[in-house]
Structures are given as C-alpha cells and as structure tokens.
Design brief:
Order of helices and strands: EHEEHHEHHHHHEHEEH
Strand content: 5-15%
Strand order of the largest sheet: 2-1-5-6-7
Number of helices: 10
Radius of gyration: 18 Å
CATH class: Alpha Beta
Helix content: 40-55%
CATH superfamily: Glutaredoxin
Shape: globular
Structural class: alpha/beta
Largest sheet: 5 strands, mixed
Amino acid sequence: MQIDIFHDTVCPWCRIGKKHLFDALSQSEQEELDIRWHPFLLDNSVPNQGYEFRDFMQKRKGMSPQQLQQMFDYTRLMGEAAGVKLDFQKVQLAVNTTLSHRLIELAPSKLKNKVVEAIYQAYFEDGLNLGNINVIVTIAKSSGMDISELPQQLNDKTAYNAIVLESDNARKLGINSVPFFIITPFSLEDYRSRSVSLQGENKNRRDAENTEERGKERLVILDRDRSNNQGNQISISGSQSKEAFIEAFKQLVDS
C-alpha cells in the first residue's frame, strides 16, 4: 500500500490528521507501507524572516482578535483530543515552510516520519522559525540526520524551486486544502500517467473559518478497477473523534 500525504508544516490540522492516520495504521493489518510526503505550501509569499503571526492570521482570515483566539482555542482542543500539542501562545511568526519541506525530502526514508514530527514540534510547541536555515539544520541533527552537507543542500536553488513546483502541481491535481491523503495499492505516479483528475474532490473543505468546516481530512483510495477513476473518498470533521477517523480508514481500506 502506498500512502501519499499532502501537507504543510505550519498547518495544525495536518498535524492532527497525521496523528489520526498513524493511529489508524497502528491498528491496521497492512504490513507493506510506502509513505510519501508531499509539500502543499499554504502561502509561499511569506519571507524567510516571517511575519508577526497574529496580525498575519487576522488579515488572512478576516477575523477580529477575539474570533482568532476562538479559532485557536478550538483547534488546540481538537489537537489535545487527537494527542498532539498545539501551543499557539508559543507561535510568534507566520513562516515560510519551503525549507522544512526540503528537509523532509532530504531525510533518509527510515527517518522521514521522525523528521516530519520534529518539524511540527519545533513550530507548534517551540515556536521556532522554519524559514531559518539554522533552525532546520538543528532539527535535522536532533533527528539523527547527517548534516555535514545539509546547509549546501538546503541552499540549492533548483531543489528549492522544485518544492514550489510540486506544491503547484498538487493544486493542478485538484487538491485545494490539506491534509489530503491518497491511498493506493500501486504508484500514484502511474495513476497520474493515466490522466486521473482529482479536480473538485475537496471542494467542501474551507479554510477553517467556520467551526463545522474546520479540520476535515480527506481520504481517497484510487483503484485501477474502479470505472469512475475517482476511488472511494470520505471527509471527516475535526470535531469528530479519532475513533471516527480510524473507523472510516478501516472502511475505505477494506472496501
């Protein structure tokens, strides 16, 4: 089974969705897993030095300070229910995440999941600037990566631009919000070559501006034998429990 995970490293619902997914996998009988992480840059216009977080979020969401705090409180509680910490008091900067996705790309396969979690922790628990190359190198070192050539690799402009291009391509596939999981018994690249369109599959999820719309994770299973080439899919509200996600995952995998 191949699982393609589209996410951004400053997306709190991506951290919650990751926890839900890995909890579901821990209860699954799937023995051979190929997990692939894909960048989905929520806002690549943010400079590496970042913007003041709350001011940026108020303008982005069109919210008052009180509304923004309510959103943070709700998301934090959903994180606690899932078993992850989201400390919005620690987060001081809205940051550019391209370097963090480049680090995930460079991480050895056996360390990727650990690196992803370390990046989430650095931002949501420690409030660190993921656009700072020194922060990224420190995360890599603490995760057990060889950092002898890492600064040069992170500064590779061609590779950096490739991250941006991959994020753009995800939108062309019809992915317009994250987290987004695609589960297939074969290569996603093989399915792309068959001109499968995911356009419109995720239209129902908004940008977390209404409580009932927050935190929807999208699960999609693609199967060569399905005549509509769209696969099964389900949208799960963040207000539902981790158990609801796990049950939905089981239903999709077993269908």
